[in-house]
Fold each of these.
Amino acid sequence: MKNKTTKKISKTYLIKKNNHISSNMKLQFYYHMQLMRKFEETVFKLYRQGKVVGGAYSSEGNEATAIGSAFALEKNDYLFPMHRDIGAHFVKGQSVKNLMLNYLGKSQSPARGHDGTGHYADMKLKIFGNISPLGAMIPLANGVALASKMKKEKSVVLNYIGDGGSSIGDFHEALVMASVMKLPLILIIENNQYAYSTHISKQFIVEKLSDRAIGYGINGITIDGTDVELVYKTTKDAVENARKGNGPTLIESVTMRMQGHAIHDDASYVPKKLMDYWKKKDPIVVYEKKLFAEKILSDKKKNEILSEIQRQLDEASDVALNSPFPVWEDANEKVFAE
Amino acid sequence: MKTLTYIEAISEALWEEMERDKNVFLLGEDIGKYGGAFKVTKGFHEHFGEERVIDTVLAENAIIGAATGAAMMGMRPIAEIQFADFVSNGFNQLVNNSAKIFWRCNIPVPMVVRLPSGGGIHGGPYHSINPEAWFFHIPGLKLVAPSTPYDAKGLLKSAIRDNNPILYFESKFLYRRIKGEVPTNDYTVEIGKADIKRNGNDISIITYGTGVHWSLEAAKILEEENIDVEVLDLRSLIPIDKEAIFSSVKKTGKILIVHEDTLTGGIGGEIAALISDNCFEFLDAPIKRIASPDTPIPFAPTLEDHFLPNTKKVLSALKSLAKY
Ligand SMILES: Cc1ncc(C[n+]2csc(CCOP(=O)(O)OP(=O)(O)O)c2C)c(N)n1
Ligand SMILES: [Mg+2]
């Protein structure tokens, strides 16, 4: 059952400006999408060798959404990435080495072994890594947006949530608050068709998740999340709008989770036809073709990029694997600030 | 008798109760075709159908609220929270609705919330907690925490048949690590009754969940030193079996309380107060506690190993009590 009344409203909220994208920028998009995928492939490899504990998550299929949106931020803006946005950390200035250390839970990692994967926060880089309880970051992002507004920083906050996570009460409360307070919040719903094993047909019955924006009286738009330039432009518009004081935007970025929920999950519940459809829309493959056609990318350049990524990953893995684990006495007892 | 793992015992209890009573149904995230994050309900969807094995939206407060409402209607819902940590999202429904409806309105709320709890699986601060103390304080909720397949099955059956909201704390760590004998025919374990898992005369350990296993191991090691340790498994936290606690205290006079949850505000404190109130003159030593330290549960294996109680920690506390 679809809700017909909301059908045509949501897409015209944002006025698309023709944000020019330079060749250099395009190469940056490409580089970061590749880095994101290769980073996670490396994590999976290390996980299978027993060197990463806990779990390992793949963002395959979400690269364009994570990278395109993160590039829309300025240095002074705040990033609240989720578990499918690892590449956004790099765009915002985090090093491959630091993130690898964090995945391995080492003492020199940003989270000092207290937490793993992308779970850490860095006030200097203005990155607030994800936490597990879904939805709980959105009210927090509001608080950062509020304080930033009070401090007249002219910054915006970019946060993500999944199609599943969008069902959590926090989502509603936070958007109600952000809308009336006109907070500079951009919330991207990464609709990747599944929440763990649960298909979106069991998660919502609105036609587009951006239709929910209407209920909050804020801007909402649904886009193809596999198109990195479209994601970039759309987010950039929302960012500029928020910076002008016009309040939050809800963007639904439609993608596919190309692997299981995490490394243990073979995703056998996903119909092959659906996978095949999205396989053709692989954000990296499609973009690579485009850049070749535009003569921005060549075989030589591509190889240079890939070997540079490999070099960084090898170096980061090497450092991280040989780095010590934290010891209790150094780290853990400190629960309170001085 | 047959041998089951802890997780199989949980699945069997659910299955048999669903066969027995058509008012029993399951709801939770990914529990349908997928069978749940830990596969407790694997095969249920096919057998009982999607009306009784409901894959819900991702919203714990909605899940627990719906279970509570359905229970008021005479159904017997069993909600699965994917990881006990996320029950925080359902806190409002649990403490304001599930817990108070019978007292306020005289309407029974026969529901169970299953909470896969605990550390030791490298889950980090959001997939490892033991939240029983959050609810220990709330009048109107019953809390059970089995340590063996036998208790897991028997307590879950009792919980499902009970006319009150019950939080069922199941140990993820024990799921596939322990096996035990379980009767082939229908049986229950009474809620509110502790179980002496090992008889002893010198020191009593009062514990539950994973603590039972560390305690039994430590007790076994101390056999060689001729120290005779009793292990009392509470099994139910609310109602708590005061009689069993007091009689063990009266027997040994030395008490060690062990739980995986963090120390301050943990259940051990209440047990110590009960003992001090009721059996002060029987004590031969200060009451000792082994629990996790007062920090969130860390991710790095080195830190987690240090954080969690274990057999060694229990052993050294027992030795110091023995000397007292
Ligand atoms: C509040 C809460 N409930 C349950 C979970 C367990 N869990 C982790 S990820 C996940 C699925 C998330 O799906 P979605 O929000 O669509 O994000 P995706 O993983 O698809 O990117 C679930 C159920 C959680 N982390 N937090
Ligand atoms: Mg999803």
Amino acid sequence: MCQSSRPLTSAPSVIGQSAPRADALTKVTGEERYATDYYPENHLWAGIKRAAYPHARITSIDISQAKGMVGVVAVLTSKDVQGSNRLGIFEKDQPILADGIVRHYGEAVALVTAETKEILKQALAAIVVEYEPLAAVFDPQAAMSKESVILHPGRADGNVLLSDEISCGRGVEALADCEFTAEVSIEVNWQDHAFLETEAGVAWLEADGTIAMIASTQTPFRDRLELAEALKIPPTKFRVMAPYLGGAFGGKDGITVQGFLALAALHAGGRAVKMWYEREEHFLAGTKRHPAIMKYKLGCDQQGMLQALDCSILMDTGAYSAMGGEVLELAMEHAGGPYCIPNTRIKGAVVYTNNPIASAFRGFGVPQVAAGIEQAVDELAKTAGFDLLQFRLKNAVRRGSVTPTGVLLTQTVGLSECLKKVADHRLWRERELWQNSAPAFKRRGVGLAACYHAVGFGPVIPDYANAKLELAADGHIRVFAGVSDMGQGNAATYMQIVGHILFQGYDNMEIVLPDTACTLPSCSSSASRTTFTYGNAITGAADILKERILARALLLFSFQLLEQLNVQDLVLLPGRIVHQPSGREVPLQLIAGFMDESERIATYSYTCPVNKQVLPTGKKLRHHGYPHRVFSYAVQLVRLQVDTLTGEIEVCDLLNCIEAGSVLNPQVFEQQIQGGAAQGIGYALFEDFALKEGKIRTNDFSTYILPTAMDIPNMETVVVPLAEDDGPYGMKGAGEISIDGILSAIANGVAAIIGTRITQGTLTGEKILLALRQAGKEAVR
Amino acid sequence: MRVKFMLNGKQTIVDAPADRRVVDLLREDFGLIGVKECCGAGECGACTILVNGTSRLSCLMLAAQLEGVEVTTIEGVAPEGSFAIVQQAFIDCGAVQCGFCTPGMVLAVLDLLQRNPQPSSEEIREGLSGNLCRCTGYQKIVEAVQVAAALLKGRRA
Amino acid sequence: MEVLFPRTLEELKELFVTYPDGRIIAGGTDLLVQLRKHGNKPSALFSVEHLEQLQHVEEKETEIFIGAGVTHQQLWELPIIKNYFPVLHDAVAVLGSPPIRHSGTLGGNLCTASPAGDTLPPLYVLGAKIAISGKTGKRCVPIAEFIQGPGCTMLEQGEFVTGIQIPLPAPQAFSAYYKVGKRKALAIAIASLAVMLEVNPDETVKNIKLAWGSVGPTVMVLPEVEAFLKGKVLSDEILSQAGKMASLGVKPIDDIRASAEYRQCLTANLLLRICRD
Ligand SMILES: Cc1cc2nc3c(=O)[nH]c(=O)nc-3n(C[C@H](O)[C@H](O)[C@H](O)COP(=O)(O)OP(=O)(O)OC[C@H]3O[C@@H](n4cnc5c(N)ncnc54)[C@H](O)[C@@H]3O)c2cc1C
Ligand code: FES
Ligand code: FES
């Protein structure tokens, strides 16, 4: 637990030290302005008319009544879009406003701007859209069949967005030689990001024709490119600003409201427009985590060494591709878990359906496959008679190992250390005591999972960052963050790195949040790479600036002391520089005065090294990221208690043992670990997302159940801090690894308690009670 | 209609439709953007304000209901006293991530500590159960409340 | 929508005449959520916040009167509720969340008449009576009559609830409320059970009242189960038998929160908690 109380300070930042975040103060006083908090003068409200069918041809849109209403400024449809009207990263398949066909419930059909929210609502209701319903497909397996209706005609593979196969060694044949085998079939559910700040932004047209916007986005720079093409306006004619985000987790990785905002601003007569989804609209329009159907067959030899894996993964990406291909890639690359399995075949496909759109969500396909492989590993270890932890340890990848997808691990690998720490931990050692201490009508058990998570974008898409740093004229250090801070605290970490190198505290530093007009292009806030990549870039920039400051100071001191000085004798201190031998000091402000602007600004460009392996299979996955180079590792353990009368389940203890390189700021690191694990608990037990024929039934917070403070246990985080050469100060990404193993650990714990597995969807009390009943354990005292 | 009430310590008179939601009134008319909206339906606590010292949800209140009451938003909590301690504890303990739940959470904590100055960790979790947080997993928030409670106790002693 | 603040019962009655489609708003935690969803706004809301007569709690010799406008938080804090009506105390403790309990009222919970309303099963087993007032005068009816169906009460246009009368239970009576929701707080009941139990010195059941929430169109009361248990010594075995009867007697539905089948299981199993406690 943390102690002491002191003002948010100015002590110089140090890498490795637990320090409060620079952004915490303005957030706790309520002063911080999020995208939702901008109300430009005289602004309009923009809103969307959404489709009432999961798949239909639009036969007519009658906007006349809405257009005629007092207080309505514009009613726009796809006809008003000048460009391609297509958004997307790899596959540009999603219209800003539907042109002809709608492919999911709630797809945007028309855009209205109005003076007030009330008029906006009335105008939206007054738009009459006529549809000719089309056959629709909601089941990903059905979507693959020849008979299925096709969502995007003209594609070579029908509804299949991407499919491929990875195989290593002798492939599936080796299963026949295994002494023991285990099979599991697992279906995991959708998950909604449910960030608290729903999609929002404001936009306006500047005098020079630039469309400026402040939006809650993880991807300000990429958004410009997407918008440029869809609206046929040069990217430089957009200015995107990303203030702190009120949560995102992947759900703001790409365009949400930005397309509407830009279009609305173009038709607002110079007035600003504001858009802010209500919670229900967020559910309807926002992306989700991909559900997956997985089949696993895993085999080992007599000694318990894993020998063969055959698995298939089918993901549903909904109506549009979004990041479907990349999510499938990451899922497939991690499908075999962090184990040495010489012979494998991993088949994967991601398909279009008329369901909501699935895309990036913390974990990015890995929590799904972890649920497959980790349950298969538990089953196999039990069948073969091995201890669940020792079995994992025996087969764990090490540095220099090759993963089940053929990836050679050249960088740090801390899985064995994590497993050993957990093996020695009280929660594991005392597992039998726990099991045997259940009160009346309760059952207790322990569940375990091991996982890994790739950092970055893989070999093809450059994972780059351009850092910029300024010694301001007044002696302040200005840190330009080119990557959004969606709540994970990367902005504060950039300051910490700069403060560490330049020996400054927060009080002498200031952060400039992403703004395409003044921060430099960098990739998105995603893929466990945000701090990893930008951290490297900002380190480079800080080194350059330091050198320049010292060089200038050296001249100054030389004049003052009238002798030849050595740069080694100078030390940067908060706000000043000291010449140690003489004890003389000059303030940074003075130095700044002697520097030209071009010298006061240091920039540094960094691109992550990649894995150069040329792998024989999975060719189509390559530009989606296969193979990766750096991975973080985790072992997660849960202690569970199930009520045999009601099936209610409680996570009583949770242990996260994490190897994600060195830790720059333990407090921020723990925040990531605890937050991810809590989302994992939600995913496993509470967030029982439900669809009916493409329509979301859990479309508000009374039906989509997020865990409250009473549903999440105290967690313990144990760190294995291996130093990673690629990462700044030895770090690796820690943003996603903590969500990866929770569902699998809980599922394994539940199986240990009940004796059978619940293989479909969220592990609700209802399913648990039913399983208890089938196992003859219902209402057992 | 004219509504007269105390807003963050100041006597305030505002002309607003009687059925205007208090969250809209505070954010749009008074610029108090520390009052967040996240669900509009009572489920998340982001819009929490204190009404006569008690935590209430401004998305489920109408302007007319403010007549004669004292409203405190995060902007109006006295920058010294227990707020300063709770606030500092949130910062020190790392209870703030994206921060969107934070203003509502802090006000819920003030209400809780006023009712129960020495809450157990279960009581803290219970007391904050109307405020969802998607980022932190709550643990550091619970720690912050424990730290603040201990400091406040020290003060009273 | 106008929002008006009657100070007396008379004023409130008048308002119903002036605005025939007007509706009472107490804490607003149901009403405003409903209006957001369905939008058919009445011309006026009558806030009972300042209506003194609805805010008070009165302890009489054999009963207690709770004003309809008393909030769940106030109720929870009252020593008399904690000491004499643990079943009600338990129920308001798990209703919604702290801010919901600060606003929401007993009258509002009652008049919403949701089968999942947490105070309803306790009021059934406590034998509560509802005090109604309106232009035609006053009446007082047992809760089972007052609640007529999901979202449906016997209130007629212009009528309202002034309060709830509950007889004081026998001093040694045991009472409890068991709720199953989808999480530990902010959870609408999937199934719930209120129990009021008196046992004889020989441990046989002298008197038992049971009421289930969320397993039928309204709160479910099953006299045959109560009759079965009367005179018996409670054990897991006996309660399981009672549970079997009960699960046949209730009329649950499938909804977004749970299946009818699950609710049936819970109907039976929650009875076993009595013995545990
Ligand atoms: C997030 C959230 C969680 C919730 N959780 C729960 C829960 O766990 N359990 C539960 O039972 N409920 C829950 N509720 C529902 C609600 O909070 C309760 O039913 C509460 O008791 C309603 O009281 P109120 O004073 O707010 O009612 P209001 O919303 O003010 O009124 C509800 C209805 O009753 C009428 N009414 C009110 N008072 C009177 C009166 N004196 N005479 C005649 N009619 C009257 C109103 O006209 C209206 O139709 C929840 C609601 C929310 C928003
Ligand atoms: S916005 Fe008011 S409770 Fe969610
Ligand atoms: S800090 Fe983001 S929701 Fe709580």
